Structure formats: structure tokens, C-alpha cells
Amino acid sequence: MGRNIRARALMVGIVFGLLICLATPYHNIYLMGTLLGGGHFPLAPFFIFAWLMVLISATARVLRRPPLLTGLELLCAWAIMVVVSGIPYTGLLRTFLVNITAPFQFATTGNRWDEVLHPIMPKGLYPQDPTAVEILWNGLDRGFDMGWWEILSNIPWQAWITPLSWWAVFILLSYLTMLCTVNILSRQWIANERMNFPLLRLPQFMEEVMDQQRLGNFLTDRYLVLGLLVPTLLHTINGLNFYHPQVPAIPTLIPIGPYFPPTGLFAGFAKLRIYFYPAFIGFAFLAARQISLSFWFFYLFGSFIFGILALIGLSVPPAALGVSFGPTLAFPEETQMIGACVVFFLFILWLARFHLAQVLKAAFVPGGEPPRETEWLSLRWSFWGLMLGGCGLVAWCMYFGMGLPMALLVLLAFYMMTIVATRVICQGGIPYFTLTAAPLDAILAFMGSKLFTAQGLLLAAVSQKVLYADLRESLMPSLLHASKVSEQTSRKRLMLLGIVLVILLGLVASFAAMLVLAHRYGMRELNLEWSTTTTVSVYENVQRLLEVPSDARPFVMLFAAIGAAVMLGLIVCYQRFYWWPLHPLGYLATYSSAMRILWFSFFVGWAVNELVLRYGGMGLHRRVRLFFFGLILGDFLMGGIFAGLGVWTGSSYMTMPD
Question: Which of 95, 156, 159, 285 could connect to 628 by a Cys-Cys bridge, CB 3.0–4.6 Å?
């Protein structure tokens, strides 16, 4: 039986979530401070969660009264903050305004965008007033001297209402389908498969010790204190170096590529680096050993592949890749991930085949069963909500010029990649994950671009950039984490209400904060170099495909087929042989840019896990686990402190990667 949560817990989550949405654009993009909402274990929500837990417990102890919020209620509030924390940054707003204004701002006589792109751009999705675009990029006249409310009232809203409204339809329909998809899959992944959630282990443990009134013992445990000291000393010294360069720094980035020969078997190791982030080592320790082993093993093996192909004379030139939209896709060999994702997605469906049959039965047979402990809604409501959202997205795509077959194919590719990434993030415990190949790359590799209309190709590329290309702060993994958290509650509809409200209000707050920031300083003055570069490349790639339509790409298809075969083999071995050491999830992250940062953390986490269990057993493992909790807790507490210090000083030492 689930435990009760009160509405006040959700209000706390919503209020702090909205504050994060309002503060993130200014803090991350203007001040360039430590990211408040980066990845799938964001800084600001956990910092708030930890301090609220300490303050509420201390107050209850001093006043000898029941705590204002229980540990479970604080955990639910944290989950709500996490859900909304990605929207104001990489999850949406970091690139959105650049996305819908770049074709005007960066059109030149040389690139001929006004001839090639402007005629096919749907008018409802782009601002039609050149003055409004100019003001957005250059800022309002004397905007520096205006207050925030004055800027808000001086924004030329008549130019923005139409495009923002149409994009809001796309975004809300996408979020609806994600919400319903998570509700449908939650029973299978959480209850049936008993999926591990490494990123939730520390917050759930803190919730337990608070409700058991053992928070003091937890915070004074010697293993935890030792873990806290590592990131505290590291960031104190490196923070002092940031503000006072005469203080020596402790290196957290060690290039080891130069120690390998540039040619031959180790040619792929030329850019190998060791990154030291204590929190990421903590998450790696909490992941299943089979998964943590697979992540670092496949990353290093992927580097070997480049050397092996070069050694036997089968290197494929990067030009064979053709035009690509992948966030980090650079070589044809990396397109193995296209085939691997397709096969793993089919594996997910195969594992859930009996559950999906139940979903269809519940959808079409009256009087279905009530929601289970992992579900906010009944399967019936979830199925029809998914159908409504999916049909709405198809209609939206068709309205703006995409044909029905391609709309169905593009949206299927979007959701296939997002579901696979959600599984990798939540089961693998990866707080920072990027796709290798974008969904559109898979379609272009096998079908070419000739099946798209000009408007359809542009719409597919731009809508992918809005929500489905960079999944570092995607909504779906955060929703799955919230579903796992709400498993313990009895008032699941109340939790769902809090999630829906924070998403709707968070969208409004995030758009308002970003528009005000841009109109005050001008987009030119903000830290949007990465957003601008990647967005301009999307439009340049669309132009290339319009001018020279592509056919299917043989080399990409070959490597995708190899990736599919490897993934199929891994799945068969994983399912058939209990002693098999490698997990298919590891292969999916082989060429992800996240692994360039995380591979060493997973190596250390796996090695310590193996040694502790082999020589100390579960008893020692439970005690040592607190040390790794300390690494995570200390890293994020120091990140929050330096974020606050950055607001005061105007420059911030970064404790986490961007």
C-alpha cells in the first residue's frame, strides 16, 4: 500500500521548479555559471532537496513537532523539479529561439537562404517581422537600463504569438505522447523487469533515513564524510585557482592520447582522455556491474575498431557518411548505432509483448483493470492519450507540408530513439547522455532524401532539432524517474497533476525568461555559440540535400547492418547465458560523446564494485556505498555553492560539464 503525500509537497516542487525555470537562462546563458539544470541528475533540484531535508529535519527536532514535509514528500517534490529543470536550457530553450530565427539572421548573399530556404519555410512557424528578429538578436534600445517587467512589456509580442503558438502545439503534443508512453511502459520496466535506477539510489536512500529519523547518523557516517571530503577539497582548491590563478589546481582532465601511437592498432586512441568527476564515479558504482563494465569496455573497443580497420586497409573516408544531423556523428563506422538502436528497440517490444497485449485489451475491452502501483493513469487512458497525441503530431506535420507516410516514419524514428535513450539513461545511470546518430540520419541512410518534399525535409530537420536531437535533458527519462518515485505513493493522480502543472507553467516561465533575457542583452551577447553553430549546420544540411538530393548510402547501411548484427548477438548471449559479462546497453553508448567523459568513471566504479564484493561481501559493500553517496552529495553541494558564488561575483567556476 502506498504512502500518502499532501498537496503542499507538490506545491513546493512546483514553486522551486518555476524558480529554476526563471533563473536558468540568466545563470547558464548570460553568467555562464555552473549549470543549474544539466543532464538527468540536475544540480539545482538536488541542491534544494538536500538543504530542505536538513532544514526541515532540524526544525522538527528543535520544535519537537512532526516535520513540515516527510522524506517521501520531499522526494516527490524533487522529482517534479527534475521534470521541469531541462526545459529552460538544453531540453528546449537553449536552441529554440536560435532555431526559428537563424534562417533570417544568418541569411547572406553567399548562402542564398533567401532563395532556397525562405520560400519553403512555413510562415506559421517563423516570425515574419524582420524588425522583431533584429531586436531579438541585438536587444531593445537601452534594454540594459530597463527593468525586467518593462522589457517584458516592450517585447513585440504580435510578431511572436503565431510561431510560439504553433510550436507550443508541437511541444505539448510531444510531451503528451511521452507522458502516456512512460505510463504504459512503467509497469513493464519497473514492476515486471525490476529495472535498476542508479540515479535514484541516493535520493531514495536520503528519503528513507529522513522518514526513519536517522538523517543525523547518515550525515555523520565516516564513510560518507570521507566521500564528502574528496569533492569538497577538489573544488575548493580548483575554485580558488579559478578566482586566484596563483593557487595551483588539481587536474581533472588528463589527455592520455599522446601516449599512444598515432597510427596502427591504437590510432583510435589519439583523443583519449581521463575526466575526473567524483559524482559520476559515484553513479557508476551504483550501477549494475555488468552495465558499468559494458560502458567502458565498448567505448575502448569502439576506439580499437578505427585502428583495426586502418590496419587492414578498410578505412572508410568521412565523406562516405554524407549529410548527417547527428549531434556527434563524424565517421561512417559510428553509424553502427543506427542498426543497434533499431534492434534494441525491437528487443524492448519483445520483452514487453505480453504487457503490450494487456494494454491493447485494456484499451478496447470495457471495464479494464485500475492503475497499478507504477501507473498514474489506467492503461486505457494512456493508450488513447498516446493515440491522440500521435495523431495530433501527424496532423501537425501534414498541415505544415509533410506527407502522411513520411510524417509517420519521422515520428516513429523520433520516438524509437527517445525510448532507447530513456532506457540507457535510467537503467545505466548516465546523468549526461547524447545520441550518436539522429533519428533523421537513419531515414536518410536507407531511403535517401528524395522521398521528402522540400517543406517536409525542412520540417523534419527543424522539429528534430527542437526536441529530439540533443537528449541530454529530454523529458522522457525524467518522467520515468518520477514514475519510479511515485510508485511509493497512494495519491498518484495528485502526483500526475503536479507534473502536468509544472510542465505547463514551466514552459510559460522558461519562454518568458528567455525572451526577456534576449531582448535585454541581445542574443549576440549571450553564451549561445554552440546553439548557433549546431542550428546553422541544420539549415546548411537541409540546403545541401535540397540542391543535391541524396540516395541511400551503402557504407552507412553496411555499418548499420553490422551494428544490428552485433546487437542481436549481444541480446542472444545476454538472454541465453547467465555468465555472459556484457550488457547490450553498453554497446549503444559506444560512440556517444558522453562516454568520452564518463568511461573512466565507469571503469573506476566497476573496479571498486568488483573488488569490494569479492573480498568484503555485501556487508562491506553496504558500508562503502556511503562513500560513493558522499562523492555525489559533495560534488553537487559544491556545485550549488559555486553557482551562488557566481551570481555574486559575475563569474562561476564550473563543477560539471556543459
Answer: 285
* Cβ atoms within 10 Å of 110's Cβ, excluding its own: 6
How much is the pLDDT for 369?
A: 65
Q: Mean pLDDT check: name the lowest of 530-534, 551-555, 621-625.
A: 551-555
B/e letters for 637-657, b = 16+ CB within 10 Å, e = fewer, are bbbbbbbebbeeeeebbbbbb
Look at residue 314 in the predicted model and tell me its pLDDT. 72
Residues with Cβ within 8 Å of residue 345, at least 6 apart in sequence: 416, 419, 420
| Nearest to 295, CA basis, from 413, 201, 432 | 432
Burial class (CB in 10 A: 0-12, 13-18, 19+), 412: middle
Categorize the per-residue pLDDT at 256 as very low, low, confident or very high, splitting at 50, 70 and 90.
very high
CB atoms inside a 10 Å sphere around CB 236? 15
Integer Cα distance of 112 and 409 in angstroms: 30
| Structure confidence at residue 229 as a pLDDT band (50, 70, 90) | very high
**Tell me, what's the pLDDT at 308?**
85
CA 18/CA 34 separation, integer angstroms? 18
Residue 374 CB contacts under 8 Å (≥ 6 apart), including other chains: 186, 187, 190, 191, 483, 484, 487
Contact 293, 582 (CB under 8 A): yes
The Cα–Cα gap between 35 and 51 comes to 18
Q: Output phi, psi for 140, to 5 deg.
A: -65, 150
Given a cut of 90, is residue 34 above it in pLDDT? no
Burial 499-520 (b: 16+ CB within 10 A, else e): bebbbebbbebbbbbbbbbbbb
Three-state DSSP at 197 gives coil
Is the pLDDT assigned to residue 538 strictly greater than 60?
Answer: yes
Where would I find the H helices in 429-553? 439-447, 454-463, 475-486, 492-521, 529-547
pLDDT exceeds 90 at position 3:
no
Name the residue among 425, 424, 421, 440 with its Cα closest to residue 335: 440
User: Smallest Cα–Cα separation from 143: which of 34, 30, 36?
Assistant: 30
Amino acid at 600: F
Give the Å distances, CA to CA, from 71 to 87, 207, 485, 510: 26, 4, 12, 28
The pLDDT of 259-287, averaged and rounded, is 90
**C-alpha distances in Å from residue 84, one per residue of 20, 127, 133, 260:** 8, 26, 27, 43
Cβ 343 vs Cβ 568: under 8 Å: yes
The dihedral sign for the CA sequence 583, 587, 590, 594: negative
**Whether the predicted pLDDT of 132 surpasses 60:** yes
Question: What is the C-alpha to C-alpha distance for residues 265 and 460, in angstroms, rounded to an integer?
Answer: 39
Helices (H), 64-156: 71-85, 93-105, 113-116, 130-138, 148-154
Q: List all residues 6 or more positions away from 197 whose beta carbon is below 8 Å from its beta carbon.
A: 426, 427, 429, 481, 484
CA torsion, points 55, 56, 58, 62, in degrees to nearest 10? 130
Cell of 125: 512557424
Residue 250 DSSP SS3: coil
Crossing angle between the packed helical segments 222-243 and 278-286, to the nearest 10 degrees: 150
In whole angstroms, give the CA distance from residue 119 to residue 117. Answer: 6
627, 223 contact by CB (below 8 A): yes
